[in-house]
Amino acid sequence: MSLLTALSTSAIFEQQCPFLVSDYVNKHIGNHSITIQRHSSANASLWHRSLDDAISLSKITYGNSVRVRSPELKGIYHLQIVLNGHCRWHFRDRNIVLSEGGMMILNPGEEVDLTYSEDCAKIILKIPTSIIADCVINHGVMLPKGGVKFAHVPQHISHLKTLSGLVELLCIEAESEERNDSMFSPYQALLANKLLTIFRNNSDIEIAQNFEIKMFKQIDNYIDANIKTDVSIEELAEVSNVSKRTLYNLFAKHRSVSPKYYVKQKKLAAVRQLLQAKPYGIANVTEIAMDYGFIHLGRFSSDYKKAFGELPSRTLKSHAVA
Question: What is the pTM of this model?
Fold first, then answer.
């Protein structure tokens, strides 16, 4: 199978009005509006599959020269791969044109403004922020303030056989009659890891192992060992054997956050892992949050959603044992 023939049994629309396709995209892929640049003949087609209510795969062609605008992607990334024709992304400082095989990632919170050529066809992978965030955390790297952001630097799928094969495999599994949604979790982690490695981003996932990284590892170990306590800046400075000023400078340089913010995010990550595991005896989110020192529950829920793209109650519910 090639990406051109991917999702062949998952047609939602074939040779239909572009605005019918647009309405479906608004509901299932991402909020947007379209403007037909030339004519509005019924040449639009869409193929779509969702994987375990998380990642979704779509193949779309409008069959017209179409301009697509969206105020922002909310809580999701879009990996977009051009299969045919070309697509022009309009940014404030420049335009980027991708032709066949070109691909790029759009970030949550960014305005989307792009134009399809009449013969443009694309595959779009919709990826929740929580999947990327979990991958970063599992690498032992701190989430950047404001979340992971990918640079607008195009790649070409022909140079990345492993990623191309993974996307093809996801398409095959999504259409399998024997599919089991629980099987897609390893694929999610593998996809997130590939994207973080291939596309330049602000997560520091490939930071060189130097003295300061070893120092952060020592700090991490101390925080992990005392994760349920109110770890102070003074304690961290003593553990790393530096002044408080040096500690702040180190965090600003390597994590772009303050030590206090870092500790809070580590606590949130620990709570998330516990909610996902849902061990015997866990009654509710409030019990877990307070056990980790989150007294202001409204603020906790807000911080949790900013970090992982969903409320803690949703995490607990989605990982409940049947």
Answer: 0.68
